[in-house]
Design a protein that fits this description.
Blueprint (H helix, E strand, L loop, with lengths): L3 H18 L3 E3 L2 E3 L2 E12 L3 E13 L4 E5 L6 H8 L14 E4 L2 E2 L5 H11 E4 L11 H11 L4 H14 L15 H13 L5 E5 L7 H18 L2 E5 L3 H5 L3 E6 L2 E2 L23
Parallel strand pairs: 5-10, 5-11, 8-9, 9-10
Antiparallel strand pairs: 1-2, 3-4, 3-6, 6-7, 11-12
Bound molecules: adenosine-5'-triphosphate and magnesium ion (MG).
């Protein structure tokens, strides 16, 4: 069983290295991705005969300090992959080659739910496609909840939550509940919640999906700033070619698989055809 403290120490070293090398982490002679998955499969069973193979064997490596976009048609498995990478769900274990998933060099597949929850709370920030805000809590309380999970409470948590809301331009909405916010504002609260603990990894599922192009560019610039300033690793799902083009690298999914980098690019995705594209911020 891996000790979470070990993960934290390893991960801290990862960020320090990353701040100077921007992209890869070195452990001795070996370059170590922050996140690495192999043979990731996920099957959803709906009744006895109806199954959906949402992930059909994915190998993926995300280097520390990268800002990566995942694109692909609806239903291709993007959210499912994000849930696995964010330790929210486990990969299938009962068929095919054994799956592996490591975070900061530590194996994750066999960790118990308690440890996965602790790593998630301290090291990862998640923006869900449907926001996942608690309807009875205000924006401030929703963001503060992430502090609470990470062990930060009271006035420090309040200040951190306010600062995160200010980062996304929502300090004046701190007292609003989700139903009293627009879709785009709820999305920004979800983003503030993912940023509040300054996690090593941000997994954002369509973080600009409900925003107009101006607000979307602002949020992207905010993510890029945090990526550059803190060496934070960011993986985001998007349907927006401009958002993808602003990332360092694009991963394409189709039918539960990652497409090879050199695969033909459909016309609609021409904007994101390059493997490494320049950032906007
Ligand atoms: N909880 C679930 N139960 C059953 N099937 C599911 C479940 N979640 C996802 N699926 C199915 O798995 C496949 C992949 O879904 P996923 O949500 O990962 O796609 P996606 O690429 O994120 O799509 P979108 O761009 O529409 O968000 C889809 O066919 C979907 O219907
Ligand atoms: Mg999705």
């Amino acid at each position: 069983m891996t000790d979470v403290t070990d993960v934290t120490v390893t991960a801290t070293a990862t960020t320090q290295t990353t701040a100077t090398t921007r992209g890869s982490t070195t452990t001795g002679d070996r370059t170590m991705p922050l996140l690495e998955g192999r043979n990731l499969r996920k099957t959803y069973r709906l009744g006895r005969t109806n199954t959906v193979n949402a992930l059909r064997g994915v190998d993926v490596a995300i280097e520390a300090g990268e800002m990566v976009a995942i694109i692909g048609p609806s239903g291709s498995g993007k959210s499912t992959l994000m849930h696995l990478l964010g330790l929210l769900h486990g990969p299938d274990l009962n068929h095919g080659p054994r799956p592996e998933l490591s975070f900061a060099g530590q194996p994750m597949v066999d960790l118990g739910e308690g440890e996965r929850t602790r790593i998630r709370a301290r090291e990862m920030g998640f923006v869900f496609q449907d926001f996942n805000l608690v309807p009875t809590l205000t924006a401030l309380e929703n963001v503060g909840l992430a502090c609470d999970y990470a062990g930060v409470r009271g006035e420090p948590a309040r200040q951190a939550a306010l600062a995160a809301l200010a980062l996304v331009g929502l300090e004046e909405r701190a007292g609003h509940r989700p139903a009293e916010l627009s879709g785009g504002e709820q999305q920004r609260v979800a983003l503030a919640r993912s940023l509040v603990n300054r996690p090593r990894l941000i997994l954002a599922d369509e973080p600009t999906g409900n925003l107009d192009s101006e607000r979307s560019a602002e949020i992207l610039a905010l993510l890029r700033r945090s990526n550059l300033a803190e060496g934070q690793t960011i993986v985001l799902v998007t349907h927006d070619a401009e958002v993808a083009a602003a990332c360092d690298r694009v991963i394409r999914m189709r039918d539960g698989r990652i497409q090879p980098a050199a695969s033909p690019v459909p016309a609609a995705e021409t904007l994101v055809a390059g493997d490494r594209l320049l950032a906007t911020a």
